[in-house]
Amino acid sequence: MGKVNWESAKYDSEKGQWAVFPGLCKGCGLCIEKCPVKCISWAEELGVYGTPRVVADMKKCIVCGICQMVCPDTAIRVEKKK
């Protein structure tokens, strides 16, 4: 079991930025389930409730924002580059 990280974890690509806020993520997995390209997976680090938080593979991510929309705790932020 890892330690809880309260700061956001940010991932960048030429398409945009994806961030998760472990202090908000309860590890429900909705983002993993709803991602159309299956680029989100469980991380080694823990979220606030002692459950694994999520991480994005930015090589696959299309920065669609679906994960941000379905997250019940607003723990994910997606920003598309213009």
Features:
2 helices, two-stranded antiparallel sheet, 5 strands, 3-stranded antiparallel sheet, mainly beta, disordered N terminus
Low-confidence stretches: 1-5
Oligomer: single chain
Structural class: mainly beta
Q: How many extended strands?
A: 5
Instruction: Please give the largest β-sheet.
Output: 3 strands, antiparallel
Can you characterise this structure?
The protein is mainly β and 82 residues long. It is 12% helix and 32% strand. The protein has two helices and five strands; from the N terminus they run E-E-H-E-E-H-E. It has helices at 30-34, 66-70, and strands spanning 9-12, 16-20, 40-46, 52-56, 76-80. The strands form two sheets. It has a three-stranded antiparallel β-sheet, with no helix packed on it. Strand 3 and strand 4 form a beta hairpin. The longest helix has 5 residues, at 30-34. The radius of gyration is 12 Å and the shape is globular. It starts with 8 loop residues before the first strand and ends with a strand. Mean pLDDT is 87; it is low at 1-5.
